[in-house]
Amino acid sequence: MKSLAEFISEKREKAGMSVTGLAKRSGIDIQVIEDIESGKELFLSVTIRQKLARALKLQPAEIKHYEKNVEDISVNPETIDNLKELILQGETDLYCPLCGSKLVVRIAKMYDLEDNLVFHPKAHCSQCIFQIK
User: Fold this and answer.
1) What is residue 28's three-state secondary structure?
2) Residue 65: CB partners within 8 Å, gap ≥ 6?
């Protein structure tokens, strides 16, 4: 099966458009189009999918078919635990175990039922749907 990047590139070329042309016709920033076609974007927002579909004369479902399936993605629990520990230790230069992009990390301060302060590591990928809640 083709990747989302291959599918969009193929449909754009078949329509006789350049990347710039698709960006203008769809109203999507050229960097987003380039990220999709280079394989950096595996999932699209509803808005981006609809704009691409309209510009390429497709149905949004045709594009969604090529997006990465969230259910197919799994990360070793040990990897998650290691990332959580690193976040709690103050490490900020961490990368996504799925796509290798930079993780956006933070430590949430919460209180338990006995009013004790608890630190909870959180992270999300800057490019894909990976997150630590």
Assistant:
1) coil
2) none
How confident is the model at residue 73, as a pLDDT? 64
Cα 73 from Cα 130, distance rounded (Å): 9
Q: Measured between alpha carbons, how far is 117 from 63 in angstroms, rounded to an integer?
A: 45
What CATH number belongs to 4-71? Answer: 1.10.260.40
How do residues 5-17 score in pLDDT, each as one tens digit?
Answer: 999 999 999 999 9
* Nearest Cα to Cα of residue 32 among 60, 66, 8: 8
pLDDT of 71 over the 60 cut: no
Which residues does residue 117 pair with via DSSP β-bridges, in sequence order? 111
Is the pLDDT higher at 133 or at 17?
A: 17
Counting beta carbons within 10 angstroms of the beta carbon of residue 67, is it exposed (0 to 12), middle (13 to 18) or buried (19 or more)?
Answer: middle
In the chain the beta strands, taken as DSSP E runs, fall at 103-111, 117-125, 131-132
Residue ranges per structural domain of the chain: 4-71, 77-132
d(CA 44, CA 50): 9
